[in-house]
Amino acid sequence: MKHAHSEVIEQLGLGILIIDAQFIVRYANPFIENNSKQKSLAGKSLFSLFPELPQVWLRKRVESVLMLDNTTYTNWHQRPRLFDFPSSRPITGSARLMYQSCSIFKLKSAEKDDLVCITVYDSTPTAVTQQRLQNSLKRLDKERNYQVELNRKLEETQSQLVQSEKLAGVGQLAAGVAHEINNPVCFIKSNVECLRDYIGKLQSLIKHYDDLLDASLTPELKVKRDQVRQSLDMEYVQEELPEILDETDDGITRIEGIVGSLKDFARLDSGQWQYADLNEGIQSTLKIVHHELKYKVREVEQDLGELPKVQCIPAQLNQVFLNLLVNAAQAIEKTGSIKVTSCHMPERASVVLTFTDTGCGIPASKLDKIFDPFFTTKAVGKGTGLGLSVSYGIIQSHGGTISVESEPGEGTCFRIELPVEQDNH
Amino acid sequence: MNSPGERDEMRQDALQEILNISMGQAADTLARLINERVHLSIPKLHTVQASSLNAFGKRLLRKPRGTLTRQSFNGLFRGEVLVCFEQGACHAKLANCMGFPDEPAGGRTSELTLELTNLLASACLKGVAEQFEGSLRFGPPSILSTSVTVIDYLERLKPLWKEALFMEISFSVDNLEMSTDLLICVAGQDTDELWSGVDRLLGLEAT
Ligand SMILES: Nc1ncnc2c1ncn2[C@@H]1O[C@H](COP(=O)(O)OP(=O)(O)O)[C@@H](O)[C@H]1O
Ligand SMILES: [Mg+2]
Predict the structure, then answer these.
(1) A415 is in which domain, residue-wise?
(2) Does the C-beta of A342 come closer than 6 Å to ligand 1?
């Protein structure tokens, strides 16, 4: 039986190495001999035979094994190897050295000094499989992340599509309506002008008649005339007439304004693509809206950075600035402040503009509606709900983005990013 | 003759005594190994029903969250040791005491954790085995999870056992900001071997 034991140990596909407390090798089985390409190891020092061994660490481990009479283990996962043995897969492997899982334990011996046994198990097959698995996992993970990103982009594109679809539909409607309204408004307007002219003439005629009559009428007839005038309330009519005409004009101007923004919205008369200084655009727009802002904002704060000329349709962008500034002013109930900034982002080849106000803010529930056509929270006559949807469409056609951040009660910030160059204009 | 109730109480007391003695020895051995003062708490015995892990959780003295390791043992009796290393425990200093180089690379930390599990399990159970005049063999330790409490882990597991004996010990080292909890666990069906060992020591061998 004794013979069988040693035969087993020689044949075993497991390295067995026995050392004493002084780290002198007492026995090494063929597995160790073959892999280390050294013969007759017995009697030699472990650390001179295997200089790759971590001495301090191993001494400590052997000490603890002797003290506790236990087994200590190493795993290829944390410590790929103790011995620099060549890989058991010289042809099909990917690592030069063998992966090993080892155990170290005390041998009770007849001698007065205890012996320590080190076993070396070749974990290369497991390591190879595990690494292949790990690589597949990594690849899967990468693919999954890619898909998540793709999904996110898809959702984003979809929401943009929905938005632009809405805009396109409403755009057609608006173009039609604008056209239909424009014609009658035009002749109403010229008719009102005629009316004003004719009424002026009629009034001077009446004046003329009066002067003539004053000179020729008898007192009784004069009283009669005055009675007729009074019963017709002519004094009031004459006074009221110009006011009525003014109001009518006012109404017409308002209709023209709405038709104009509808037209802008449908972009019936889009301007020309050119390179323009957006800071100039902002400043000229500020001048135009000055009268709208002056009661609520002492001065619009400007922090305009140096910008390259941006390829755009300036008239359209000015329309956007105007919408944002008017909205900002309307959001401020009594007084507040508005700040406009611009800056160049060379690394993104874009410019960023922000319009910030200290107005009422927008509740989260409405944030995703404000760009919808006809969405307004303002009184009839004050808001059309077209400003932001027009702006959205314009920025989109410039290849840019417009976004909003708002804190109800604190204020709102609109952020526009525009590419400096257009890809296909 | 003693009633079953009295006998159970005697057994528990005896086991408690055996554990107390073992922990004293274990603290000594560990201190010599890592050159620091080591504290092991007086072990606390818990009989745990798998159906009420929650109640067990309440009885545990400490329930740290962190790296949970395990190591199986058999021989005299069989079971598993669970070790919970509290999150953020400072291993670096211990690494030096145990002959690891300074650089705390990722793989090294888990190797250190595993070796600590091995040391603690061996040290704590060595004395127990000696008092029973038997021996215990340990399998290689492994990491179960890196951010969990024992109770969380067991609850997720849906254990195979109905009842088990858990011996709770906490381990700390002077000058090191770490405290580690050790549970020696024996499943209900395996406690017979443990108790018959205790009976032998008490001279209560079955007649
Ligand atoms: N700066 C702002 N602060 C608060 N609310 C705003 C602001 N800008 C836009 N809004 C909200 O978005 C709605 C839509 O704006 P807009 O499309 O310009 O239409 P309108 O101004 O005609 O209402 C507004 O009615 C308002 O509720
Ligand atoms: Mg508006």
Answers:
(1) 271-419
(2) no
Q: Could you tell me if A305 and A353 lie in one domain? A: yes
pLDDT of residue A373: 80
d(CA B88, CA B10): 40
Amino acid sitting at position A317: L
For residues A133 and A88, membership in a common domain is answered with yes
Rounded CA separation B194/B74 (Å): 11
In this predicted structure, the answer to whether residue B155 has a pLDDT above a threshold of 70 is: yes
Specify the CATH number of the domain B4-202: 3.40.1550.10
A202 and A305, same domain (yes or no): no
Regarding whether A122 and A229 lie in a shared domain, the answer is: no
Q: What is the pLDDT of residue A269?
A: 46
| Claim to verify: residue A262 and residue A289 sit in the same structural domain | no
Query: Shortest Cα distance from A13 to chain B (angstroms)?
Result: 19
Residue that finishes a domain, picked among A204, A235, A266 = A266
User: Would you place residue A138 in the very low, low, confident or very high pLDDT band (cuts 50, 70, 90)?
Assistant: very high
Q: Which of A232, A266, A300 is the last residue of a domain?
A: A266
| pTM (two decimals) | 0.57
What would the pLDDT profile of A218-245 be if each residue is shown by its tens digit?
888 888 888 988 998 888 988 898 899 9
Closest ligand to A388 CA? 1
Q: Are A420 and A349 in contact (CB under 8 A)?
A: yes
pLDDT(B29) > 80: yes
Reply yes or no on whether the pLDDT at A364 is more than 60.
yes
Residue A24 dihedral angles phi and psi, to the nearest 5°: -95, 130
Q: What integer pLDDT is reported at residue A169 of this predicted model?
A: 63
Does residue A227 sit within a domain?
Answer: yes
Domain spans of chain B?
4-202
Q: Which of residues 5-64 of A touch B (CB under 8 A)?
A: 54, 56-61, 63-64
The SS3 assignment for A111 reads: coil
How many angstroms separate the CA atoms of A90 and A96, rounded?
7
Q: Is the pLDDT of residue B172 over 50?
A: yes
In a domain, A148, yes or no: no
> Residue B107 is nearest to which of A56, A72, A78, comparing CB atoms?
A78
Query: What total of structural domains would you count in chain A?
Result: 3
Mean pLDDT of chain A: 87
| Rounded to 5°, angle at Cα B146 from B143 and B148 | 110
Structure tokens at A276: 């323009």
C-alpha distances (whole Å) from B69 to each of A273, A288, A386, A415, B170 are 69, 73, 64, 52, 14
CA of A323 to the centre of ligand 1 (A): 9
**A50 and A128 together in one domain:** yes
Q: Does A256 map to a domain?
A: yes
Q: What is the pLDDT of residues A196-219, one digit of tens each?
A: 999 999 989 988 988 888 888 888
Q: Can you state the angle between helices A234-266 and A124-216, rounded to 10 degrees?
A: 160
Residue A299, domain CATH: 3.30.565.10
* Count of C-beta atoms within a 10 Å radius of residue A246: 11
Give the per-residue pLDDT at A319: 82
Q: Domain for residue A135, yes or no? A: yes
Protein residue with least CA distance to atom 18, ligand 1: A387
Average pLDDT over residues A394-405: 92
Q: Kindly state the percentage of chain A with pLDDT values over 70.
A: 93
Contact assignment for A60 to B99 by CB distance below 8 Å = yes
Q: How far apart are the first and last CA of chain B?
A: 11
* A308/A252 same-domain check: no
